[in-house]
Design a protein that fits this description.
- 28% of the residues are buried.
- The chain has 13 helices and eleven strands.
- It folds into three domains: 5-82, Arc Repressor Mutant, subunit A; 93-171 and 277-314, 3-Layer(aba) Sandwich (D-Maltodextrin-Binding Protein, domain 2), CATH 3.40.190.10; 173-276, 3-Layer(aba) Sandwich (D-Maltodextrin-Binding Protein, domain 2), CATH 3.40.190.
- The strands form three sheets. Strands 3, 4, 5, 6, 9, 10 and 11 form a seven-stranded mixed beta sheet that branches.
- It has helices spanning 5-17, 20-27, 31-45, 61-80, 101-118, 131-140, 180-187, 193-196, 209-219, 235-243, 257-262, 291-303, 307-314, and strands spanning 50-53, 56-59, 93-99, 122-128, 145-148, 164-179, 200-203, 227-231, 249-252, 265-267, 275-284.
- The chain is an alpha/beta fold.
- The longest helix is centred in the N-terminal third of the chain and has 20 residues, at 61-80.
Length: 319
Amino acid sequence: MLPDLNRLKIFHQVYSAGSIVKAAGQLHLTQPAVSQQLQKLEAELKVQLFTRLHRKLVPTLAGERLFGLIEPFLVKLEKELPYLRQPYEQPAGELRVGAPREFGKEYLPRFCTAFRQLYPDVNFKLKFKEAVPLLRMIQEGTLDYALVDVYFKPGELPGFPDIFSIDPLLTERMIMVCSRSYYDKEIRGDHSLKNLLQKDYITDEDEPSILALWFKHHFNRVPDNLNVVMTLDSHEALLHGLKLGMGLGIATAHLIWEEVQSGELVTITTAAETMVNMISLVQLQDKIPTLTEKAFRDFMLKKVEEPEIQRRFDYPLEG
């Protein structure tokens, strides 16, 4: 049997406010009334939800777990209530979508804008993070969809059970590039392993793992010690360093499409095919999607097929 829902609401308010006094004011109740409802909830659940430490209310482990259960429901309920009068056949309400930082900043706002032109009663909450945090947010119910930039087959997601539904969207190509000046001075048409191992590199990862993957893909060898002259946590900063001629680096082809076409950046080609990466749309496998979520999924699957998008992802930058 479910606990009293009004008591759960009071618990949620106390947890969020961190104080019975503040929660009482926000709920327009007296402090004794709030305290009494909390005590009844604890008795009902047979567990202590808060401890008092130096006049401060601290949630117990049980309290944290209970808050984690009810927070997504109450947040979504608050967001969706204004749309209850909307017709059932019309998408409306909030969509919570996550994406990789660089892909998300470049494409997701334009996708959301186009979707709202069709369905103006939909609003978006976007999160830009790496793949694993996004998948965890899907698992915890704080995102409806995530676009992840690594494609794992069902059951192969590291650290996650087989709980996700995955729709492949776009194939990203990961290419090695440098500035025209660096190429003319240091590369001079020599794309051999011996020559490349002697050059300078910059990377946007804490460890140059993407560089190791590129060498493994193109030469079937992982270098022991590349000369990484700078590491960054931003793809934008990486591109700036590459344009300044600091060295070689791995970049996502569609994000530097214009720079490569203009000749500002030069690609390093080999006999191997381009290294690829998959952008996929991920949601919980067993979740029953809302009308709005279904419409967004169908929209995204069609949107990525548009010529403008395909041209950026398919243009032959190498070879």
